[in-house]
Amino acid sequence: MGRRPTPAPSHPRTGRPADRTERRARIAELRAAEHRRERRRTLALLAVAGLLLAGLAGGGALLVLDARQDRTDRTDRRDQQDRTDTAGAPIPGVRTYDHLSRTHVTTKVAYPQTPPVGGDHHPVWLECTGTVYDRPVADENAVHSLEHGAVWVTYNAKAGAADVQALAARVRATPYSFLSPYPDQPGILTLTAWGAQLVLESASDPRVEQFFTRYVQGPQTQEPGASCSAGSMPLTRG
């Protein structure tokens, strides 16, 4: 007689074959693995969605920045055009002078204009960093500052205190400009640049701003970018 086959081992409590228990364990393991894969897939999708949203937000920010930059560029171009238009239009009352000498001298110079608009001058320039002087300055040093592109504001005894204060405030706010009294000048208020001069009666005259816009480091500047700071020098005429 042949040998009977050995029966499959049973579960110790249920008596069911052990392969069913193993199958259920295997299924549970597969489901757990699938759950882990789904979780990783969900997290990956969320990460991609986050990146897309961040990209959209960043793109929106870039669009906003581009729009702001475009507005700034348009404003800058408009301001530049305004300056160009202003620079090209004559300022009523401004007298101009050509062919001014630029020799450095250490002697007094007899200038034909009062205040002088250019010509031979002292080797050391007058400080013109928005400087306000309360007494007359040496012409020869001041002319050297004009050569560097500064605007010189002067006034005589007929000038009102309010006008002097207004011009002083304008000068203090403007590098490459300076102000000083000039008792014997014919005009009440005078604005001078190298080769250009304007006589006024009031600081509220709109030509004050036009003159500053045109001539502070303007096209008449003989030494563009030259310093307006200075060391020791004569500060009074005489």
UniProtKB/TrEMBL annotation:
In terms of superkingdom, the source organism counts as: Bacteria
Question: Which segments carry the region annotation Disordered?
Answer: 1-23, 70-95
Under InterPro entries, the record lists:
DUF3105
Segments traversing the membrane: 43-65
Under Pfam families, the record lists: DUF3105
- Keywords (A to Z) from UniProt: Membrane, Transmembrane, Transmembrane helix
Spans of biased composition, class Basic and acidic residues?
70-85
Residue spans of biased composition, Pro residues class: 1-10
The protein, known as: DUF3105 domain-containing protein
Q: Which organism is it from?
A: Kitasatospora camelliae
